[in-house]
Design brief:
By secondary structure, this protein is of the alpha+beta class. Helix content is 30%, strand content 26%. It has six helices and nine strands. The strands form two sheets. Strands 1, 2, 3, 4 and 9 form a five-stranded antiparallel β-sheet that branches. A hairpin with a 2-residue loop joins strand 1 and strand 2. Helix 1 crosses helix 3. It starts with 6 loop residues before the first helix and ends with a strand.
Length: 190
C-alpha cells in the first residue's frame, strides 16, 4: 500500500489511540498534539480493533475516508471501546489487558465477476478486505479475518451471514463485491 507509515509513526498512532481511550477514565498523561503533523492530516479510512487474550473486544471503523487519519483513529478507538453493540462498554480494569490494532484502508474497488467460481479466482486470501452488499444489506471483513476463515467459500458464507443474508447468497445471486487492502499494525503483546 502506498503512503505506508514508518515504524515511529505507527507507534505514535497506537499510543494516541490508547491515550484517547484511557483519557475517558481520566487516566494518562497529556499526549502530544499530533493533529498538526502532515502525515496524520491526510483523509483516511481506518478501523480500530481491541483484543483481550487474542479475542475480539471491539472493532469499529469506516470504509471511506471521512476525516483526517488522526481524527479517524481517535473516533474509532472510542467507538470500538465504548460503542461496539456486540460488547458492553470497556471497563477501566480491562484497559491494561487490551491490545490495540489499527488498520488504514486503501480505497475500495469493485470486482467484476461472472459467477461464484470467477469470484473465488479473483479474491486474494490474506490480502483483500472484502465488502459484500446486496440490496440494503452489507458487511465487510478486514484482510485479517482470513487468518480465522482461510477457506474463501467459508469466508464469503460468514460475510453473508454478517450482512444478515443467507450464507450462500454469494453463490446463487450476484452481490456487489468490493475489495481493499490495509496497512495494519498492532501493539506489542500484552
Amino acid at each position: 500500500m502506498k503512503d505506508a507509515l514508518t515504524g515511529p509513526q505507527k507507534k505514535i498512532l497506537l499510543d494516541f489511540a490508547r491515550h484517547t481511550i484511557s483519557s475517558r477514565f481520566n487516566q494518562g498523561e497529556d499526549f502530544a498534539d499530533i493533529s498538526k503533523e502532515m502525515v496524520f492530516q491526510k483523509k483516511s479510512a481506518t478501523f480500530v480493533t481491541l483484543k483481550i487474550a487474542e479475542k475480539l473486544r471491539g472493532c469499529i471503523g469506516q470504509l471511506e475516508p471521512v476525516s483526517s487519519l488522526w481524527e479517524s483513529v481517535r473516533d474509532n478507538a472510542l467507538s470500538a471501546a465504548f460503542h461496539d453493540h456486540r460488547f458492553p462498554p470497556l471497563k477501566q480494569k480491562e484497559l491494561e489487558k487490551v491490545r490495540l490494532d489499527i488498520s488504514i484502508l486503501s480505497s475500495p474497488s469493485l470486482i467484476e465477476y461472472t459467477d461464484a467460481d470467477d469470484l473465488l479466482r479473483k479474491l486474494q486470501p490474506g490480502v483483500d478486505g472484502v465488502i459484500l452488499s446486496d440490496g440494503g444489506s452489507g458487511a465487510t471483513f478486514l484482510p485479517q479475518v482470513w487468518s480465522q476463515l482461510p477457506d474463501p467459500e467459508l469466508f464469503l458464507d460468514h460475510l453473508c451471514q454478517k450482512a444478515g443474508l443467507p450464507p450462500t447468497l454469494w453463490k446463487t445471486e450476484h452481490p456487489d463485491i468490493l475489495i481493499y487492502q490495509v496497512q495494519c499494525f498492532e501493539e506489542d503483546k500484552r
